[in-house]
Amino acid sequence: MTYRTSGPGGEQPPGPSSVPPSSSEGANVSPFSPVPQDPPAVPLPAELADPARTLFGDRLPLAEAYAELLAGPGVVRGLIGPRETPRIWDRHLLNCAAVAELIPAERSVVDVGSGAGLPGIVLAIARPDLTITLVEPLARRAVFLAEVVGLLDLGGSVTVLRARAEEVGAYRRRGGRAAGRRTRGGRPTGPVGRPGPEPETAEQDVYELADVADLAELPVPAEIVTARAVAPLDRLAAWCLPLTVPGGRLLALKGATASDEAAEHAAAVRRLGGGAPEVRRCGVGVVDPPTTVVEVVRERLVGPASKGTAKAAGRRRGSVD
After folding, report:
1. What are phi and psi for residue 190, nearest 5 degrees?
2. pLDDT tens-digit series, residues 292-315
3. Residues at the annotated binding site?
4. Three-state SS at 292
5. Are 20 and 34 in contact (CB under 8 A)?
6. Homologous superfamily of domain range 41-145+217-321
7. What residues does each domain of the chain span?
8. Partners of 2 in the β-ladder
9. Does the predicted model carry a pTM greater than 0.90?
10. Which residues touch 124 (CB under 8 Å, ≥6 apart)?
11. 10 in the Ramachandran plot: left (φ > 0), alpha (ψ -120 to 50) or beta?
């Protein structure tokens, strides 16, 4: 899927051309629909300025621009709730950025169920050394992510892959390979998630969403897989460990019940090839409260989970309290 976004243009990127909320998640969403400009301001609270500078460094202006995109188009499109706007900095941006301390330099990262870009976009801002693939199945979310990547000029390190995590794992198990690169107007497209052919104007970049047919060109499986508020740990491990290299790690951002969840699903995680889940606290002394992460190392390769195992995982979603 190809779409156009305006370039960053100055210190404060403008809001992307919005996709209004769709009545159907699978609807054919147009990225060209206009929305009101001047999204609501989300100033960095004074009491959070020091933690933000610690976590984002000289890339704090990019984090501020992303906060505006979340509070404006992100709310308009229904990616985050309007009540979350006052809490964007503490509950979302700083909470996600703290996880960067668990990721060594220059690693490949897959963010599963990326949604509005939490934690994937935040990690891309805080850690430009990382190579990040955002995996998101829903069209309006994937388009928003790709627009944000373009507007914040993150395309050199971030790819948006519109797919389900289990679909990616199944495709790789089948030994799928990417077909020849698609063309548009007789010209080859650029690498997935990167600028494509020549822009129509000097102010435009052309980007393309990746899909499973592009996996041969992407760093999947990755050294690190992240997920935030996606699913219970057993189901999350079934989806994410196949996207992790042996010895790589799943970092699941969880809430206050993380220890109970880790204990409850430890046996299921082991059956899926993971080590014992470990609860980590990130950002201690920087963010309050610290970010809670359940870390699982992929210790061995196992076959795909059975349908019975998937059903046993339950239907409730994971949460970040």
Report:
1. -75, 175
2. 999 999 999 886 544 444 444 444
3. 113, 118, 165-166, 228
4. strand
5. no
6. Vaccinia Virus protein VP39 (3.40.50.150)
7. 41-145+217-321
8. 208
9. no
10. 130, 132, 149, 154, 157, 158
11. left
